[in-house]
Amino acid sequence: MHIPDGYLSMEICALTYAIAIVFLVWSWKKAKATYSQSIAPLLAISSAFVFAAQMINFPITYGTSGHLVGGIFLSMLLGPYAAILSMTIVLMMQAVFFADGGIFTFGANVLNMAIIGVLGFFLIQLLIKNSKRKSWFFSSVFVASWLSVVLGALACGLEIGFSPVFYDAGGIAVTVPAMLFWHVLIGLGEAAITTTLISQLHRLQTPLLTGLTFLRGSKQNERIP
Hints:
The chain has a two-stranded antiparallel ribbon with strand order 1-2. The chain has 8 helices and 2 strands. By secondary structure, it is mainly α.
């Protein structure tokens, strides 16, 4: 899903950069107001874990493979605002040191994976609003994880399809189905891995899941230590 440089028009690059910056500023302010101490060490550790986890690929079919994106996992571990910042750090390291995603397309990659990938957290919040059953909570994590990958792929397909490079090849009529076909399958792997990790952390180390505090409706004066 990492878009390299040269795939997107400058207009789409500028637009996605602007959207990404708005969300990053919003996330930074919300995270600063939520945590009672510096979140830098927490961001560093969580970013390093997701960076390493993304290196592990699982087979899909016809020689295709997928890997964990980690947006919903990070949001359950850190809360949604710090999760957007953490995923952005991962994407920045991949773009700068491994050429995995371009510099000009960095805003689009942040939008597709760090923002859309994390905002599924609020879907979980909505789904479990009137239910306290663990099975419903884990089902919500599964659905949000799958959807985060599918919607990110949809955004990616639209951004590429509306760019001149792929106009002659069919535009969004080609790029959107191509992205969705594989990522509907990859999303199932994402959902299975995320749900397994969250269920095990919930069983063994519930205090590590800061996202639960947000789901329970933490107030501004109840800052997270």
